[in-house]
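User: Design a sequence. Structure:
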């Protein structure tokens, strides 16, 4: 099967499974799992932060970050379509009593800094305390420009806000910009990175930040039930993902570009601007046709969501040959 719904569908390779099975383990709640400790040091070093915490998911990672930066009654500024706001079941509000201040993302995935500044509440007891500014990179597969990140960091500093990056796919951004990931993460106080997407681990994310921030996050992790025991079995896959699968993300980007340029030649399907900046291609198709197409592709071993506005995602388990097959199958269905 060729599954283009998401880069979360990757399966661990035989080698990854063997590495996981052979991992040295201990009780991580006692801080005694050597493989978890190794993953946390590696992540902190790669992302350029003092410390890191291995967590069950990107959702948990962002939740711990928000709860560590903000107190009850604080506010965070976030994109209207940001994962932390829209796709995490309202966790920051429900569990953290943190009020979101959502703003529309611009076409390139940034938040307009004038609008951000205007949304920061004055110190007045009528208002929640604006405490945190949160960005996402990549955002819908789009890479935030480095100059924007630097301006955004200046704004956060000027207003005394903490600055968090939901960097679920931050390595895709770094590979795309051909830069060290620290060029991107440097100006953030905290960064969350998914190991279980394009990097190919089966489970897990890492949250990175200062030592004291990570200690706070570790307490919240325990509270939300995320203290795992012999988690080294999972961390071993995370180490492998960070060591072996970062550079190859460029292959996913090439395959996405191949897919986008092939789809642009098919008249009845539209390819949205900003497609294939990294590993995502966005298409629009008349909704009923999109449903019929998903059924037809499914019979031919290709899985896509049955959405009119659709997201096609390349990853570790999709080859350039697969993309040719996808293009041929879509072309023959639509023409
Ligand atoms: C996937 C994703 C997350 C959450 O990761 P899960 O491991 O699925 O909880 C957070 N932010 C962004 C931008 C994501 O794409």
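Assistant: Done.
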């Amino acid at each position: 099967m060729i599954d283009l719904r998401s880069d979360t569908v990757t399966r661990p390779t035989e080698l990854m499974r063997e590495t996981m099975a052979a991992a040295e383990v201990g009780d991580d709640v006692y801080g005694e799992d050597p493989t978890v400790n190794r993953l946390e040091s590696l992540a902190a070093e790669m992302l350029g932060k003092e410390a890191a915490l291995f967590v069950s998911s990107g959702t948990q990672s962002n939740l711990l970050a928000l709860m560590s930066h903000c107190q009850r009654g604080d506010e965070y500024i976030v994109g209207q379509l940001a994962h932390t706001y829209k796709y995490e079941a309202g966790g920051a509000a429900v569990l953290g009593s943190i009020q979101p201040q959502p703003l529309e993302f611009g076409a390139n995935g940034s938040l307009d800094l004038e609008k951000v500044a205007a949304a920061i509440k004055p110190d007045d007891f009528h208002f929640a305390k604006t405490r945190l500014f949160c960005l996402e990179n990549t955002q819908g597969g789009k890479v935030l420009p480095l100059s924007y990140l630097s301006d955004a960091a200046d704004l956060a500093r000027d207003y005394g806000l903490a600055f968090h990056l939901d960097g679920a796919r931050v390595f895709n951004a770094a590979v795309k910009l051909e830069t060290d990931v620290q060029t991107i993460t440097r100006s953030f106080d905290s960064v969350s990175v998914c190991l279980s997407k394009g990097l190919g681990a089966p489970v897990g994310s890492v949250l990175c930040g200062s030592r004291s921030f990570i200690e706070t996050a570790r307490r919240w992790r325990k509270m939300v039930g995320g203290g795992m025991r012999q988690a080294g079995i999972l961390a071993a896959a995370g180490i492998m993902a960070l060591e072996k699968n970062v550079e190859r993300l460029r292959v996913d980007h090439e395959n996405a570009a191949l897919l986008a340029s092939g789809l642009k030649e098919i008249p009845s399907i539209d390819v949205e601007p900003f497609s294939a900046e990294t590993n995502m291609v966005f298409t629009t198709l008349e909704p009923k046709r999109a449903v019929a197409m998903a059924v037809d592709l499914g019979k031919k071993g290709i899985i896509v969501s049955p959405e009119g506005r659709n997201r096609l995602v390349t990853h570790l388990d999709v080859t350039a040959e697969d993309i040719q097959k996808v293009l041929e199958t879509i072309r023959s269905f639509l023409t």
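The radius of gyration is 20 Å. The pocket of pyridoxal-5'-phosphate is lined by residues 57-59, 62, 83, 136, 166, 168, 194, 196, 205 (CB under 6 Å).
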